[in-house]
């Protein structure tokens, strides 16, 4: 598949505001600064669709993007940012839980992690949560251009083991700088959308 159109639809600040069921959703989650906005922009080939920033923790809303007029890519607030208050962290938790438990249309999650690093405790918590809720997922290993091409398979293997995933197909190395991995993510999206009855 190709992404022919992508537009921002709306943002939500609290779970009760989530829209009525309408279209299938694929969520995008990850630690703050992992490259979530760059992933969304890279996939949709729109430079400014999701705001990218150098300053961690800017994405604190649930943002809905409509792709191909057919499904939503749902940008979840980044986690693991250190410089926020306890109240803010609690609000984040409520948002996340509200979305993940409440969304009847969620079909898959792209869980973003930096290819260069071991998963953080927050990454592991997120993964545990996704597993408990039985949400199908793919781990996207971002910033793949930052490791030598020859080392990418090694990092994929290492993270597969650290995350206790059953196979390499559960992880897709990706670079928003070079477009590496984009085709595989598109193929995964197509699989998800075509296998989901709606
Ligand atoms: N080299 C390289 N840099 C990247 C890549 N993806 C993101 N970055 C850089 O990493 C930084 C963070 O990227 P963002 O896309 O803003 O990250 P985010 O996860 O949306 O961050 P928050 O808004 O804090 O949640 C920026 O400086 C990006 O330019 C990538 O694939 N390769």
Summarize the structure in words.
Keywords: Cell cycle, Cell division, GTP-binding, Magnesium, Metal-binding, Nucleotide-binding, Septation. Pfam families: MMR_HSR1 (PF01926). It comes from Gehongia tenuis. The model has no long low-confidence stretch (mean pLDDT 89). The protein has a 7-stranded mixed β-sheet, with helices on both faces. The two termini are 19 Å apart. The chain has one domain (6-195): P-loop containing nucleotide triphosphate hydrolases (Rossmann fold, 3-Layer(aba) Sandwich), CATH 3.40.50. By secondary structure, the chain is of the alpha/beta class. The radius of gyration is 16 Å and the shape is globular. Helices cover 32% and strands 22% of the residues. The protein binds guanosine-5'-triphosphate. Guanosine-5'-triphosphate binds next to helix 1.
Topology diagram in text:
Blueprint: E1 6-12, E2 24-30, H1 36-44, E3 62-67, E4 71-75, H2 86-102, E5 106-114, H3 121-132, E6 137-142, H4 152-162, E7 171-173, H5 182-195
Parallel strand pairs: 2-4, 2-5, 5-6, 6-7
Antiparallel strand pairs: 1-3, 3-4
What attributes characterize this protein structure?
198 residues; alpha/beta; Rossmann fold; 7-stranded mixed sheet; 5 helices; 7 strands; binds guanosine-5'-triphosphate; GTP-bd; Probable GTP-binding protein EngB
Name of the top-level CATH class? Alpha Beta
Average pLDDT confidence is 89
Structure summary, number of beta strands: 7
Radius of gyration: 16 Å
- How many distinct domains? 1
CATH topology: Rossmann fold
Ions, cofactors and other ligands present here are: guanosine-5'-triphosphate
The backbone outline, from C-alpha atoms, is: globular
Number of helices: 5
Distance between the termini: 19 Å
What is the assigned CATH homologous superfamily?
P-loop containing nucleotide triphosphate hydrolases
Query: What is the CATH architecture annotation?
Result: 3-Layer(aba) Sandwich
Helix content: 25-40%
Extract low-pLDDT stretches: none
Protein name: Probable GTP-binding protein EngB
Function: Necessary for normal cell division and for the maintenance of normal septation.
Domain EngB-type G: 22-195
Keywords: Cell cycle, Cell division, GTP-binding, Magnesium, Metal-binding, Nucleotide-binding, Septation
